[in-house]
Recover the amino acids of this structure.
């Protein structure tokens, strides 16, 4: 990260003692003083959910850009550099541009209490308003109803990806309560695309949509995305698309790709063709989501011939989808699976590890460098052990990688580093392969 923007971001943290404090009051006050840049941004597609938000945004971006559209993107968290959060008409924000926007919002805010996410989101809106583009893909930070991004009165569409238990301290203790918070992004008369959900969540979303009169497009009901004989099939009331499989690994990405396609098909004025969708499926990129690392320095620490995979999954649902993909890989090419895992103390670590029982041969637990919420490696190992996985703690990522050995069958292992997006960022930085 640029040293100047880093210094500003550090100052902004001090404006509010709590890292997360869901409220729209501080945000709307600052945006008013800034001249309401959120009212001057390009048309918005707003994306909420527990898992799959970022991947769905990545599919949307790839398909829109395949059609020649200029696309702004706002996502969080970043993996290596803060600049990854703000993409202006296709390009990550440059240091000088970011510094200028951060200094402007810092000056206008004039020391008032505000969270870092709120004030940096305001800076992003300034940039999105000033740089011409055709579409803004806006990812919710946390929840939806009171998220700092939820200041757009009339988006083109709202998207709600898979909802599950996460962030219970802020969003509620039940999946129904969490669904109500996520549903807060739905707006009157704006189409809302809903990914596959459990019955309880779907019921909540339908009630919330009826309350604001948002037309729903629900997976499995109004649209379907599935694999058939090595092809990706999407079907809705407008017909069937026979497409190549998405570039992003994992069967769960079919649902995310389907949500992106359903959204663009609900917005015919954007003029996205079947050819654009096909190109987007083949060109999409989203780091640290079942990403195979084939270059970089970390591979050299493993036994020759090893596979190295990276995924930022960090909750039980994330564990299930990643374990499912690893099981599919095991069926195609059998290798011992070794997990290198680090987790935050705000996550359900035992629930995350449970789907890997009987699949992974061992877990090498590590701390997450630079994170005050990192679980000690010993506690991560204890959670894995409780879930039925042999586990050992290590002092660092590099130490764990060096500890990976060939097992009795001498097959090079498949190593998966997982458990946290913060750990994923540490991996990409150490490997010399940060997001472009």
């Amino acid at each position: 990260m640029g040293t100047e923007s880093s210094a500003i971001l550090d100052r902004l943290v001090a404006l509010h003692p709590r890292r997360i404090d869901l409220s729209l009051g501080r945000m709307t006050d600052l945006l008013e003083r800034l001249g309401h840049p959120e009212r001057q941004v390009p048309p918005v597609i707003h994306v909420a959910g527990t898992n799959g938000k970022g991947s769905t945004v990545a599919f949307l971006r790839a398909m829109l850009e395949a059609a020649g559209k200029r696309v702004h993107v706002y996502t969080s968290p970043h993996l290596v550099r803060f600049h990854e959060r703000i993409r202006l008409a296709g390009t990550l924000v440059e240091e000088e541009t970011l510094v200028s926007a951060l200094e402007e919002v810092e000056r206008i805010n004039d020391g008032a209490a505000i969270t870092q996410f709120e004030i940096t989101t305001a800076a992003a809106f300034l940039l999105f308003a000033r740089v011409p583009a055709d579409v803004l893909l806006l990812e919710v930070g946390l929840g939806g109803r009171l998220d700092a991004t939820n200041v757009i009165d009339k988006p083109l569409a709202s998207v709600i990806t898979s909802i599950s238990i996460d962030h219970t301290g802020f969003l509620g203790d039940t999946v129904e309560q969490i669904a109500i918070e996520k549903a807060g992004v739905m707006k009157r008369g704006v189409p809302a695309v809903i990914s596959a959900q459990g019955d309880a969540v779907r019921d909540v979303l339908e009630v919330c949509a009826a309350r604001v009169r948002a037309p729903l497009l629900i997976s499995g009901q109004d649209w379907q995305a599935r694999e058939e004989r090595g092809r990706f099939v999407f079907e809705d009331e407008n017909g069937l698309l026979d497409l190549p499989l998405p570039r992003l690994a994992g069967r769960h990405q079919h649902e995310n790709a389907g949500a992106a396609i359903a959204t663009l098909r609900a917005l015919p004025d954007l003029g996205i063709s079947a050819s654009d969708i096909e190109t987007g499926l083949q060109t999409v990129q989203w780091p640290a989501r079942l990403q195979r690392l084939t270059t970089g320095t970390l591979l050299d620490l493993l036994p020759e011939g090893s596979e190295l995979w990276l995924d930022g999954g960090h909750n039980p649902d994330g564990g299930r989808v990643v374990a499912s993909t690893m099981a599919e890989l095991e069926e195609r090419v059998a290798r011992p699976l070794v997990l290198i895992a680090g987790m935050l103390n705000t996550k359900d670590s035992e629930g995350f590890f449970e789907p890997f029982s009987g699949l992974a041969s061992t877990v090498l637990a590590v701390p997450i460098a630079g994170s005050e919420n990192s679980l000690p490696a010993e506690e991560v190992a204890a959670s894995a052990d409780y879930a039925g996985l042999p586990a050992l703690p290590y002092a660092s990522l590099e130490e764990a990688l060096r500890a990976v050995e060939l097992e009795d069958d001498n097959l090079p292992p498949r190593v998966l580093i997982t458990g946290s997006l913060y750990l994923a960022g540490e991996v990409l930085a150490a490997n010399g392969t940060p997001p472009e």
The CA atoms of residues 289 and 310 lie 7 Å apart. The chain has a mean pLDDT of 94.
